[in-house]
From TrEMBL:
Residues 140-269 form the Phospholipid/glycerol acyltransferase domain. Keywords: Acyltransferase, Membrane, Transferase. One of its GO terms (cellular component) is peroxisomal membrane. This is Phospholipid/glycerol acyltransferase domain-containing protein. It comes from Electrophorus voltai. GO terms for biological process: ether lipid biosynthetic process; fatty acid metabolic process; phospholipid biosynthetic process; triglyceride biosynthetic process. Pathway: Phospholipid metabolism.
Length: 725
């Protein structure tokens, strides 16, 4: 499994394909000629494509669906014919009706749109060639990352442009309600599914059989988003495994020889929904998808969105994944058409594969220079002199490349031009004045603007900028966790440092893509990368900070600072919440209001590693504590750590808080190192006229753990789980 899905310990060793601008040809030739050209894609094993009507008949008459129809009829006491009609209605509501004429229309319109929006759309053509061969040999499942509505439009456009078979795309029911547009999407390959099935056995049977029939027959590549929805934060979301279970089942049952899963990484210089996402994270309801809303959004055509990158990864063989992991013979004990729960080995394989595939998406995500600039500006909210910003960006570029980042940085241009181009493209997020660059957020209320409105506007700017910083977090997150662990641990012994690392790894396992059960592997990777950049020195039993590694470690710790602050605020809220049984649906608004009151008060008390209380008025990173995504992830961590228990009462889910455990976690987060370097603390002391302070108390001991010790190589590691005090 690891050899198939997990990259080498040094990600920089991985060879990546060259990228070509697919719009270059479109700018030189007729869009109408491109849309109306001969389209004859190679198909699975040379089979003639099936008509949508034939696919419908195959699904409705399948043994699996007929078996469930019989079960539902017996359970509900309805005539079988009525249940059959309901199944047919569900299928008609769901199914696509692919029409080449509609595809050609979209090809023409999207050529115009993409040439207006983007300077270039760069694609790895070697990956396209690998995909073309895979489609002919095996059923293929396309798994793109999901950052924008543009993702699925661009995927179909690329496949049409390169003469590949068009995918059928799992889309939410929201799009189906769009007049005209919804039907056109259906005729371009979209099939519509509910966000949740709510235990509807018949709907699940129709849906799963529809997908599996297309897969078994090689009808077309199937496309869906592992993350389930668009990421509003720029980070990858925890994968959903429901659809992945369905598409892998035909292999487990021996109905196909193999299935190829193709991760696709889509990245943007500038995201179209940038400010919309920030507002959604702050509680503004998501606008409903409507045709009129789409027409009103045409003003975006006047904006410049820079460069878009699409990278097709190597196909991952399900057969190779399952080798030695799943005994498929057990599926022969029950007729194939009878639904059965996947065995534990199959469930574990699907879950592990989902995380590894998202990591493959991350590793092939092309990053632009602005992500580095946004990272630096967020860590320096008072702004930076342009020469310093350029120097720091060049340093950060070298660090990112040494950690294996897929960075698209023009080598032929001086750093000053590269940084300036990023600032110009994102002039709505950053401004340059008097030779200094800083975030474009209001400092004082406007005329008639309340403090709450000012805080909201500032939060929109900070969260929008943070969405670009978040794009690079997958490169740094493991070394960042180790950097904090090194400063927090009471010892330089590897096992002690690993205990702190694993505590942080567990807390943030819902915030970042950290593969379950891979904490030791992530620890080793972090040690290797920090050693590679000479930030630490590692021996068989010890790991210590090197003399020249302070700047690197301080930067990495600062990356985690907004998340440490945000999680601490959530713990504070839960400890102070007086309601005994808090409803889950009220948690996010209440936690956001609590964080807002801290910001409006102008003071968020932090305790630095030296034990000195610091009052940080208007600290920009505090605004990230308002993010609903962070609050939900913090709640998931507290549930995992048994500091919060979810209790279902009727239709409502309530939260029972173990205040002792939540307070213990808050204390631990409070003492973790902040982004204030030693020099920063010295400057604050000098400005305040205070004498130099002696080192403060050590952090409190880690909460009680259930510790299991195991050997890996010659070192001893401990896996830790929260224990109820």
């Amino acid at each position: 499994m690891a050899s198939v899905l997990y990259s080498p310990r040094d990600p920089g060793l991985k060879k990546r394909d060259e990228l070509e601008d697919m719009l270059e040809e479109r700018r030189r030739s007729s869009d109408a000629r491109h849309a109306l050209r001969c389209y004859a894609p190679a198909v699975y094993k040379g089979l003639a494509p099936r008509e949508a009507s034939a696919l419908r008949g195959a699904v409705l008459q399948s043994d699996a669906l007929q078996h469930v129809i019989g079960q539902v009829s017996a359970e509900c006491g309805e005539r079988r014919e009525l249940v059959q009609e309901e199944a047919a209605h569900l299928l008609d509501e769901m199914a696509h009706r692919l029409r080449l004429g509609t595809v050609r229309f979209f090809a023409y319109v999207l050529s115009k749109v993409f040439k207006t929006l983007f300077r270039s759309v760069r694609v790895n053509e070697e990956g396209v060639q690998r995909l073309q061969q895979a489609i002919q040999d095996h059923p293929v499942v396309l798994l793109p990352s999901h950052r924008s509505y543009m993702d699925f439009l661009m995927m179909s456009y690329i496949l049409y442009t390169y003469d590949l078979a068009l995918p059928v795309i799992a889309a939410g029911m929201d799009f189906m309600s769009m007049k005209v547009v919804g039907e056109m999407l259906r005729m371009s390959g979209a099939f519509f599914i509910r966000r949740s099935f709510g235990g509807d056995k018949l709907y699940w049977a129709v849906f799963s059989e529809y997908v599996k029939t297309m897969l078994r027959t090689g009808y077309a590549p199937i496309e869906f988003f592992l993350e389930g929805t668009r990421s509003r934060t720029g980070k990858s979301l925890t994968p959903k495994t429901g659809l992945l279970n369905i598409v892998m089942e035909p292999f487990f049952k021996g109905e196909v020889f193999d299935i190829h899963l193709v991760p696709v990484s889509i990245s943007y210089d500038r995201i179209l929904e940038e400010s919309l996402y920030a507002r959604e994270l702050l509680g503004v309801p998501k606008p409903k998808e409507t045709t009129s809303g789409l027409l009103k959004a045409r003003q975006i055509l006047r904006e410049d969105y820079g460069v878009m990158h699409v990278y097709f990864g190597h196909p991952v063989s399900v057969r190779s994944l399952a080798q030695g992991r799943v005994k498929r013979s057990q599926y022969n004990l029950v007729p194939r058409h009878i639904p059965q729960r996947p065995c534990l080995a199959a469930q574990a394989l699907v879950g592990e594969a989902a995380f590894r595939l998202v990591r493959l998406q991350e590793q092939a995500m092309v990053l632009r220079p602005w992500t580095l600039v946004a990272t630096l500006l967020l860590q320096n909210p008072d702004g930076m002199d342009l020469p310093v910003l350029e120097e720091q960006a060049a340093w950060l570029r070298r660090l990112a490349l040494s950690f294996g980042a897929f960075l698209d940085w023009p080598d032929c241009k001086p750093c000053r031009e590269v940084v300036g181009a990023g600032l110009a493209l994102h002039k709505n997020l950053a401004r340059v004045s008097g030779g200094r660059a800083r975030l474009a957020v209001a400092e004082t209320p406007g005329v008639g603007q309340t403090a709450e409105e000012l805080a909201f506007d500032r939060a929109v700017g900070v969260l929008s900028c943070a969405s670009y910083r978040n794009q690079i977090l997958h490169v740094f997150i493991r070394p960042a966790l180790l950097s904090v662990a090194l400063q927090t641990a009471n010892s330089s012994r590897k096992d002690e440092v690993y205990t702190c690392f694993n505590f942080l790894w567990t807390v943030f396992s819902n915030e970042f893509i950290l593969c379950p059960g891979a904490s030791v592997q992530d620890f080793e990777e972090a040690c290797y990368l920090l050693g590679k950049c000479c930030a630490v020195q590692e021996s068989q039993q010890d790991i210590v900070m090197s003399e020249g590694g302070h700047a690197t470690l301080a930067f990495l710790r600062a990356l985690l600072d907004p998340f440490l602050q945000g999680y601490q605020v959530v713990c504070q809220y839960l400890c102070k919440e007086t309601e005994e049984n808090l409803r889950e649906n009220k948690f996010v608004p209440a936690a956001r209001n609590f964080a807002l009151q801290l910001i409006l008060a102008g003071v968020l008390t932090l305790v630095a590693s030296g034990g000195r209380s610091l009052s940080l008025a208007g600290t920009l990173k505090c605004y990230e504590a308002l993010s609903s995504d962070l609050q939900k992830n913090a709640l998931a961590a507290l549930v995992q750590l048994e500091a919060v228990t979810k209790v279902k009462v009727g239709d409502q889910v309530t939260l029972k808080v173990n205040r002792r455990a939540a307070s213990s976690l808050e204390d631990m987060l409070e003492f973790l190192p902040r982004n204030l370097s030693t020099r920063d603390c010295e400057r604050e002391r000098e400005a305040a006229g205070e004498p130099e302070r002696s080192p403060g108390p050590r952090p409190p001991p880690l909460p009680r753990w259930r510790v299991s010790v195991h050997l890996r190589g010659s070192a001893v590691y401990r896996d830790c789980l929260w224990l109820e005090p």
